[in-house]
Design a protein that fits this description.
Length: 99
């Protein structure tokens, strides 16, 4: 492999990953098939590093769009607010006690 080919491949890889990250931030997820196509020529450790980076960016890697879990990265407070919004008001679950 020539040095020129390697540099071009790395530039393309970097650009493809950036595009995928942008798409993932917009949608909250990326498809595993899209990611695998981009990183297929990397060694296993580098592939895992990229997958871990996606998770750190709160981008889910899913098989299908239907697998996306919009609640996965909720904080505890956000989860409580969400659950309270589902309440019919008849129960006192998740109500913050006054001091």
């Amino acid at each position: 492999m020539s040095l020129g080919y390697n540099i071009k491949m790395n530039v393309n890889l970097s650009e493809d990953i950036k595009k995928l990250v942008k798409k993932g931030k917009e949608n909250g997820f990326i498809l595993i098939s899209e990611l695998d196509e981009i990183i297929k020529n990397l060694n296993a450790a580098d592939q895992q590093y990229i997958r871990d980076g996606m998770e750190e960016l709160e981008i889910q890697i899913v098989k299908t769009p239907e697998d996306y879990d919009e609640y996965k990265y909720m904080t505890g407070e956000q989860a409580i607010e969400f659950l309270q919004s589902l309440s019919d008001g008849k129960t006192k679950a998740f109500v913050k006690e006054e001091d």
